[in-house]
Specification:
- By secondary structure, this protein is α/β, with parallel strands linked by helices.
- The chain is built from 29 helices and 33 strands.
- Among the domains are: 115 residues, 3-Layer(aba) Sandwich (Rossmann fold); 83 residues, ANL, C-terminal domain (GMP Synthetase, Chain A, domain 3, 2-Layer Sandwich); 69 residues, ACP-like (Non-ribosomal Peptide Synthetase Peptidyl Carrier Protein, Chain A, Orthogonal Bundle), CATH 1.10.1200; 190 residues, Alpha/Beta hydrolase fold, catalytic domain (Rossmann fold).
- The strands form eight sheets. Strands 27-29-28-30-31-32-33 form a seven-stranded mixed sheet, with helices on both faces.
- α21 links the parallel β28 and β29.
- The chain is globular and about 90 Å long.
- Bound molecules: adenosine monophosphate (AMP).
């Protein structure tokens, strides 16, 4: 279907990722080259191929190539812990894995042949561009997705092409995608709605827009992306729909034409909120379906002011049958509860290497005329409404949904049981005041063993995806039991009653700011009392609640804080300090959040916004990055007299975000010199600096040997690429005086407009002024230096820094010139090495 579409619209844009894109023809050719290579490695119908890639153009090329070669893909989510990936690799024994050189390091030991789409790409381009002859039939597998398993290990659901073909055809006949549509790809390959997002778009000529890695969890980013890219089609889970509706700017998302909301029950209140905020009719759909039935099995077009108390899941999609049956597999009457069973074209082939479980869940379909037809027992309780719609009521087992992630509580308990100190455990899902669920683990420890909750949490983090790690852990003497000897889950204590056990001593608020914050926390978390030393995340807070909490903080304190502040300051006491700081009461002058999400300490990069974007896209999604910028407001840079003063002001500002070290600092070119001075000042204040990274920064004064015209052309060229431009009156005259008018016409400058030059010249004037007066001192810590391989100017070895480093100087050469090292493809190598340097620095300093 994709290849037919390529014939229809070869030059149309097929896929967009940040600033890069591929047309249908380009995408097809790349996928063909890779597919030919995969064939040479033995991939053909029936062969499984692991795919461990972040969202990127390569990920789409990789998926298409696997299918073109005839294989079926197995998502290996790079954010999952190694033990989880090891299980999947062990279970599937995929003979081939697609990944990148960077992600390869996080993969566990395996026997597979590896294809690195970054480092090996040049070799791959030697392959034929032509389509392959493909012998795949509808019965061949298209993918295996692993989902939570109640016995302690995940289970692989095997989906054949037939189910996905049916899904796409149903979508197309029902919702009619056109070439004008733009489909957002925000869901991980580990979850099946990603399948329709990608292939519906590519098989029917729409444009696929990839959210940046990690972006799927960031409501502000998504709203911006939807309105900027004019997205028309998207999928999301109810908790994310709620978060988006609470975002500023959601009213600008009027281009949306189709939204699939699914994964768990959709509250009627949310539907009403949707209509009041977006006023879009016939757009929102409640879709229902388990992974075992090829994505969606039923759907309902959401209506305004309906009389439903619970939003129905509607009616079956094409070629799908829904049966609501009692324990004897007899249909129940209209309005009666029964277990929902699914039959038809979407059924999975079963669970990989689990014939018993497959037989238990995929049973003969007594209602079908087709010999051998099966139906899937979903475990979902549902009923038929009088109007023919189906209503989902709940589960009949201990499978739960947390932010729509499917979780078998038994799997978490089974992993806890592997910890030597755990004697017994029960994990349950509780609801916060807003109706969001979170996990609580109740644990009885072995009497002879002491273990900290943080250790138990880490134990689970190493084995389970993040969404399966409980928010709260409660240590109990014994678990409550029912008379027949089962854990009495309903008698497990409420989190509000267990607060002290969670966090130790209760400390009441002591001042006005803390009192206000306690009120906000109690409202958002739906529990009380909350003490000022309680950790937001241990009380059940999660990323979406954090967004809501910070929205309340903004209302009360008129201060917009990024989520990373809460991650680093998760108690009321810490947040109150941040809010009380006068520096923060006025808004930031220099700090610009470039990527504010993530749990790691922030990386501060001096002088630049857009130049750092490609680098950031390759860093850990959990790595927040902030820019420190004075260049975009020329006056500020020019106003300070000395570089030391500028660095001092920068430090004041980063301390509002991160009051204590270890700090991660860096900068490109002259930005590196500022970072260097900041590091010096922080160390003299007794702070730790875990990373000082210089990106092609020359030690000031060491490039003097070159001729003035060479230097001028280099610097102007460099400045022209730095960032936004500003018109500064009279500078053009001054510039002509200092350098002569020839400089302005020099072709080497790549001057596009005079304003361009004038703006940068003003900035450059300030840089020169700083450089002239700045006398760098010997640095006692470690400097990580990245040097551009292509030198535009004559430089000293190690760009002069050897003279000044009393500690260690780690230097690397990166392909590209002064700016090229921050651009693709070179920046991938840079990011890889930078990540190692960050981890090393943090490991040494924490
Ligand atoms: P998954 O395999 O992750 O798609 O999870 C499938 C399960 O999610 C179903 O069996 C239901 O329990 C639940 N589910 C999916 N969509 C909906 C929906 N629209 N309303 C209620 N529950 C849903």
């Amino acid at each position: 279907m994709f290849e037919i579409q390529v014939e229809r619209s070869p030059d149309k844009t097929a896929v967009v990722f940040e600033n890069t894109q591929l047309t249908y023809q380009q995408l097809n050719r790349r996928a063909n080259q890779l597919a030919h290579h995969l064939r040479s490695l033995g991939v053909e119908s029936g062969v499984l191929v692991g795919i461990c890639l972040e969202r990127s153009l390569e990920m789409i090329v990789g998926l298409l190539a696997i299918l073109k070669a005839g294989g079926a893909y197995v998502p290996l989510d790079p954010t999952y812990p190694t033990e989880r990936l090891a299980f999947v690799l062990q279970d599937t024994q995929t003979p081939v894995i697609l990944t990148t050189a960077r992600l390869l390091k996080s993969l566990p030991a395996h026997q597979a042949q590896v294809v690195c789409l970054d480092s090996e790409w040049e070799m791959l381009t030697q392959n034929s561009l032509e389509n392959l002859v493909c012998e795949v039939t509808p019965d061949n597998l298209i993918y295996i997705i692993y989902t939570s398993g109640s016995t302690g290990q995940p289970k692989g659901v095997m989906i054949p092409h037939r189910g996905i073909y049916n899904q796409l055809q149903w979508r197309q006949t029902t919702f009619e995608l056109t070439q004008a549509d733009k489909v957002l790809q925000n869901i991980s390959l580990s979850f099946d709605p990603s399948v329709w997002q990608i292939f519906w778009s590519l098989c029917f000529g729409a444009q696929l827009v990839l959210a940046r890695p990690g972006g799927h969890q960031d409501p502000a980013y998504l709203v911006k992306l939807i309105s900027e890219q004019q997205i028309t089609v998207m999928a999301l889970v109810p908790s994310m729909l709620r978060a988006l509706l609470e975002q500023k700017g959601i009213e600008n998302c009027q281009t949306l034409k189709h939204i699939t909301c699914g994964g768990e029950a959709l509250p009627v209140k949310l539907i009403e909120d949707f209509f009041s905020k977006l006023k879009l009719d016939n757009v929102l759909h409640n879709c229902y379906g388990p992974t075992e039935a090829s994505i969606d099995a039923t759907f309902w077009k959401c209506q305004q002011n309906s009389n439903y108390l619970i939003a129905p899941i509607g009616r079956p999609i094409a070629n799908t049958q829904i049966y609501i049956l009692d324990e004897d597999l007899q249909p129940v009457g209209v309005g009666d509860l029964g277990e929902l069973h699914i039959g038809g074209a979407g059924l999975a082939r079963g669970y990989f290497k689990r014939p018993d479980l497959t037989r238990e869940k995929f049973i003969p379909n007594p209602f079908s005329q087709e010999p051998g037809a099966l139906m899937y027992k979903t475990g979902d309780l549902a009923r038929y409404l009088g109007d023919g719609n189906i209503e989902y009521v709940g589960r009949q087992d201990s499978q739960v949904k947390i932010r729509s992630f499917r979780i078998e509580l038994g799997e978490i308990e089974a992993v806890l049981a592997q910890h030597p100190a755990v004697q017994q455990s029960a994990v349950i899902a509780r609801e916060d005041v807003l109706g969001d669920k979170y996990l609580v683990a109740y644990i009885v420890l072995d009497r002879d063993r002491a273990v900290k909750i943080a250790q138990l949490r880490r134990f689970l983090q190493q084995r389970l995806p993040e969404y399966m790690v409980p928010s709260a852990f409660v240590l109990l003497e014994t678990l409550p039991m029912t008379p027949n000897g089962k854990v009495d889950r309903r008698s497990l204590p409420e989190p509000a009653q267990i607060r002290q056990e969670l966090e130790g001593t209760f400390v009441a608020p002591r001042n006005e700011v803390e009192i206000q914050l306690v009120k906000i926390w109690q409202k958002v978390l739906g529990m009380q009392p909350i003490g000022i030393k309680d950790n937001f995340f241990s009380l059940g807070g999660h990323s979406l609640l954090a967004v809501r909490l910070l929205a309340q903080v903004e209302k009360v304190f008129k201060k917009n804080l990024p989520v990373s502040i809460l991650l680093q300051n998760p108690t009321i006491e810490q947040l109150a300090i941040i809010l009380s700081k006068s520096a923060l009461v006025k808004s930031w002058s220099y700090l610009v959040p470039l990527q504010p999400c993530g749990s790691k300490p922030p990386l501060f990069l001096c002088q630049g916004i857009s130049i750092y974007q490609p680098l950031i896209s390759y860093l850990d999604p959990e790595q927040p990055v902030y820019g420190l910028l004075s260049g975009h407001e020329q006056e500020k840079l020019v106003k300070q007299n000395r570089l030391e003063e500028l660095a001092f002001d920068y430090i004041q500002e980063i301390k509002t975000l991160q009051p204590e070290g270890p700090y991660l600092l860096g900068g490109h070119s002259f930005g590196g010199v500022i970072a260097f001075e900041m590091a010096q000042q922080l160390i003299s204040q007794g702070q730790k600096v875990a990373l000082l990274v210089l990106l092609d920064t020359f030690l000031p004064g060491t490039t003097k040997a070159i001729s003035s015209s060479e230097r001028l052309s280099f610097h102007l060229n460099q400045l022209l690429q730095i960032g936004p431009t500003y018109i500064v009156k009279n500078v053009i005259e001054k510039l002509s005086k200092s350098y002569g008018s020839f400089a302005l016409k020099h072709k080497f400058f790549r001057i596009k407009t005079l304003e361009h030059l004038v703006g940068h010249a003003a900035y450059y004037g300030a840089v020169l002024k700083y450089a002239k007066h700045y006398v760098p001192q010997v640095y006692l810590g470690r400097i990580t230096l990245f040097m551009a391989r292509e030198k535009l100017v004559r430089v000293e070895p190690e760009l002069g820094w050897t003279k000044l480093v009393a500690g260690e100087l780690e230097s690397y050469e990166i392909p590209g010139d002064h700016f090229g090292l921050l651009k693709k493809p070179n920046v991938q190598l840079l990011a890889e090495k930078l990540k190692v340097a960050i981890d090393k620095g943090l490991a040494e300093n924490y």
